[in-house]
Amino acid sequence: MLLQLLSRFYFFVFDRLICYHLLKIYSAQFKIRFMNLGYVNDNDGAVNNAIRENGVEESEAPHIGLYEKTLSLHPQYPSLNDCRLLEVGCGQGGGIDWINRSHPSLTSVTGMDRVAIRDSIVTGDAHDLPFKPSSFDIVINIESSHLYRNPQLFFDECSRVLSKGGHLCWTDLRFDGDEKQVLNQAEKAGFKLVSIEEITDSVIRGMEKVAQRYDQILLTAPWYIKLFGDTFRKTYCAPGTEAYVKREKRYWTACWVKK
């Protein structure tokens, strides 16, 4: 039990004080614009068409696939006309760049993260979004909410900043069965479920492709980054790490509408 607590504390410190700041320095050099595990499904025509039509680099296709899969649950997808979109937890900003490029009918695309990598990203906390009520029509949140200390506050804040009839498009991992808690939190925040889908197998395929590239990057990284090599590999669930071998969590994508 003590070892588990120490491990969780270490990963918390690594995520908050080390990982993001190293990425801020080296993301441009190593061309790292995304931080999600990826999504690959050869039978998902909607997602694959969006990737093909917009000329995506092969190394970024799995990451972009997860964005498109998440957005595809929106009732108006692929047409998102006249909508104001916010990504909570946008990381490096690759996702908002992609959405701007692939969905030009959106009125605006805003990215927010706890650590803003670039000036165009708003600095903010998912528990206290720095936006006025009804500021957006779509909120997208990818592979981020499992890190929040209070997911209920996150759902409450999403409801506050969304206009009535607006949609929350969400993707993340949870221990098997814990997705029910997510559904309860969203409902408590005033959302009605539109669609939910388990995508674990497709994420694992994406994760394997992503890990190949990141493992190559680690080989050429400075020595002080290599010191955290095992931790980075655990973060992106590389084959051979505990997270990849045990596979104790399931991956879900869902869309809700604000009542």
From TrEMBL:
InterPro entries for this protein: Erg6_SMT_methyltransf (IPR050447), Methyltransf_11 (IPR013216), SAM-dependent_MTases_sf (IPR029063)
Alphabetical UniProt keywords: Transferase
Organism: Pristionchus pacificus
GO cellular component: endoplasmic reticulum
Coiled coil: none
Pfam families: Methyltransf_11
GO biological process: sterol biosynthetic process
GO molecular function, one term: sterol 24-C-methyltransferase activity
Membership in a protein family: Belongs to the class I-like SAM-binding methyltransferase superfamily. Erg6/SMT family.
Name of the protein in its database record: Methyltransferase
